[in-house]
Amino acid sequence: MAAGTIWAANHLGTPVRRFASPGDYPEGLAWDGTHLWSNNFSDGVLYRVDPNDGHTVAGYSGNGLPTKPEGLAWDGEFLWTCDWVTGVISKVRTTPTGVEVVANFDKPAGSGKPVGLEWDGSSLWLACFGAQAGDTSELWQLDATTLAPVRMLRLPIYWVEDLAWDGRYLWSVDWLFRIGFAIDRATGDTLHTYHTPGPHPVGQAWDGRYLWLSDTDVDSIWALDISAAQTSAVQRLSWTDIKRKYDGRN
């Protein structure tokens, strides 16, 4: 499968802000127009975070929230999250003082472990690890109302994580190789790759200007500049060549 990168050092993916994550094992990220949301894998807490300084506005747990949460998405009205163990996708209502799970859906039959979610204005997208040993990751387009699968795209990587939508591309990361990238929703091709600032990137959110990224190893959240992806041409390379590039094996 085709893949690409922009070889403009210190441009695509440049960190412009960093603060400590509210939890010790941050997973999904979402942006609701005012706050960041971050869920924590080790204890299931869902945090509302001030993006200006990283302070925790509130934290919520229990009441039907996933106990081993993964991705997060915001659809303009509700948060969406999923559980690594059960595979259940939850629709969550937020209020100024709390959160409430209003519906639960099973992940697509036969899909792998769920790790990422995003809303693109018309569909919910779900990222999963490969279901069988040796399978690369899966990207599922889900019906907005029923969450029935519309189609599945096979990604060229194994360790996909959470998703973000910038109005043109989905964005995700390879957790093992610390490579961030855009995804073409039509083909599943990975484009505009960059080296992430932390060793094990996971959460993704787009605030209209910056791509936000969390990392499980250094317990941090960054705002990244990805403006080069809107202004630079894509150079297509194999995924193997991209990994070699970032590993320094030219």
Task: Write the SSE topology.
Elements: E1 3-5, E2 14-20, E3 26-31, E4 36-40, E5 46-49, E6 56-60, E7 69-74, E8 78-83, E9 88-95, E10 98-106, E11 114-119, E12 124-128, E13 138-142, E14 149-154, E15 164-165, E16 170-174, E17 179-183, E18 190-195, E19 201-206, E20 211-215, E21 220-225, H1 228-231, E22 235-237, H2 239-247
Parallel strand pairs: 1-18
Antiparallel strand pairs: 1-22, 2-21, 3-4, 4-5, 5-6, 7-8, 8-9, 9-10, 11-12, 12-13, 13-14, 15-16, 16-17, 17-18, 19-20, 20-21
Task: Give a structural overview.
With 250 residues, this protein is mainly β. The protein has a single domain (3-247), classed as Neuraminidase (6 Propeller). It contains 2 helices and 22 strands. It has helices at residues 228-231, 239-247, and strands spanning 3-5, 14-20, 26-31, 36-40, 46-49, 56-60, 69-74, 78-83, 88-95, 98-106, 114-119, 124-128, 138-142, 149-154, 164-165, 170-174, 179-183, 190-195, 201-206, 211-215, 220-225, 235-237. The strands form 5 sheets. The protein has a 6-stranded mixed sheet. A hairpin with a 5-residue loop joins strand 4 and strand 5 (46-49). The radius of gyration is 17 Å and the shape is globular.
